[in-house]
Design goal:
This protein is α/β, with parallel strands linked by helices. The chain is 35% helix and 14% strand. A seven-stranded parallel beta sheet has the order 3-2-1-6-4-7-5, with helices on both faces. The radius of gyration is 20 Å and the shape is globular.
């Protein structure tokens, strides 16, 4: 608490000591640790702002159709950990479940740049015009993710629990990626959160390997 108070004062944020009942009244659950912060409305950035500066290859993800705020938060957590530069979303009021998303993402939802696109096609066209390969997670007519070259600029669409990725979009994508399994004839597909983590990890792995090769 002393560390938080010090950092708050450095940032010009006032610190007020109140009773436990006041903290309980403005928080949900019992995991607040006796500390709460009042913040303004969430700010979404423009699609352009998800692109990194410098010479780094962009890695932008769009999460579309996720219904469960816990799954949404977990997916953000994985994508942030694996180095995604930003996440695009279709318009939706996730703030009604902001506390759940923040906890499920372990705070990544407060750190990951988020932008809003009216449609998946709009986001794909925007990033495609800026040199990003458009990829999507898909079972049919797709290549294993570990056989695809994901080291270049990439826009990756990951569908939600129910609808997934539409066939019309998949047909137009530059890359259709599938996660290979090792269970013979019966291959249960991963849920959205696990799929997002697996795909993002492969992107990160390839880019780290490419940097090592370049330095060598």
């Amino acid at each position: 608490m002393r560390w938080l108070g010090h950092r708050a004062r450095e940032a010009g944020v006032p610190v007020v000591l109140v009773g436990a009942s006041e903290i309980d009244a403005v928080t949900e659950g019992r995991s607040h640790g006796g500390i709460a912060a009042e913040a303004g409305e969430r700010r979404f950035v423009q699609l352009e702002e998800l692109l990194p500066g410098g010479c780094r290859a962009a890695f932008v993800v769009m999460l579309d159709g996720i219904e469960d705020p816990f799954n949404f938060g977990q997916a953000l957590r994985a994508l942030y950990a694996m180095g995604a530069h930003g996440v695009a979303l279709r318009p939706r009021n996730w703030m009604s479940a902001a506390a759940t998303v923040a906890r499920a993402s372990a705070g990544a939802s407060e750190l990951m740049p988020l932008a809003v696109a009216e449609t998946v096609a709009e986001a794909a066209a925007f990033y495609g015009e800026r040199g990003l390969a458009v990829a999507c997670a898909q079972k049919e007519d797709a290549i294993p993710v570990d056989e695809a070259d994901l080291s270049g600029p990439l826009f990756l669409l990951i569908g939600g629990e129910k609808r997934g990725v539409t066939r019309s979009f998949a047909r137009q994508a530059d890359l259709r990626l599938r996660i290979p399994y090792d269970r013979g004839e019966y291959e249960p597909s991963l849920g959205t959160t696990a799929a997002a983590a697996t795909l993002a990890y492969e992107v990160m792995r390839q880019r780290k390997a490419a940097r090592v090769d370049f330095r060598a």
